[in-house]
């Protein structure tokens, strides 16, 4: 799991990267690399659960985030992570 610390002041430059950040996160979700992504209500932190073989793989993904230059982060290895699946089921044409 990664805890990303965001700056207290969100500059215009950082805001400009947010759409790109969301596209990268969505891509990693679809690939099964990210399992969960949570953003603190006070906009101070992001928590991300990754599905990777090692911490260095996680660090490689985090360093490629568009917002990486504006943040600090910590990686913690988890024994397990459980979450509900809220995916919308597919429609049957029968």
Task: Describe the protein.
This protein is an alpha+beta fold. It has a single domain, classed as 2-Layer Sandwich (Alpha-Beta Plaits), CATH 3.30.70. Helix content is 30%, strand content 21%. It is built from two helices and four strands. It has a four-stranded antiparallel beta sheet. A hairpin with a 5-residue loop joins strand 2 and strand 3. The longest helix is centred in the first third of the chain and has 19 residues. The model has no long low-confidence stretch (mean pLDDT 89).
Low-pLDDT segments, ≥5 res: none
Task: Estimate the helix proportion, in percent.
Answer: 25-40%
CATH superfamily: Dimeric alpha+beta barrel
As a percent range, the share of strand residues is 15-25%
Given this structure, which CATH class is correct?
Answer: Alpha Beta
Main sheet characteristics: 4 strands, antiparallel
The CATH architecture comes to 2-Layer Sandwich
Computed CA radius of gyration, to the nearest angstrom: 15 Å
Give the topology string: H per helix, E per strand. EHEEHE
Give the arrangement of secondary structure elements.
Layout (H helix, E strand, L loop, with lengths): L1 E4 L6 H19 L3 E6 L5 E6 L4 H9 L8 E4 L19
Antiparallel strand pairs: 1-3, 1-4, 2-3
């Amino acid at each position: 799991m990664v805890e990303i610390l965001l700056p207290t002041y969100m500059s215009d430059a950082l805001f400009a990267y947010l759409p790109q950040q969301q596209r990268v996160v969505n891509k990693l979700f679809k690939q099964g690399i990210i399992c969960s992504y949570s953003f603190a209500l006070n906009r101070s932190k992001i928590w991300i659960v990754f599905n990777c073989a090692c911490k260095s793989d996680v660090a490689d993904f985090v360093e490629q985030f568009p917002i990486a230059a504006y943040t600090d982060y910590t990686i913690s290895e988890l024994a397990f992570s459980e979450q509900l699946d809220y995916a919308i089921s597919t429609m049957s044409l029968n």
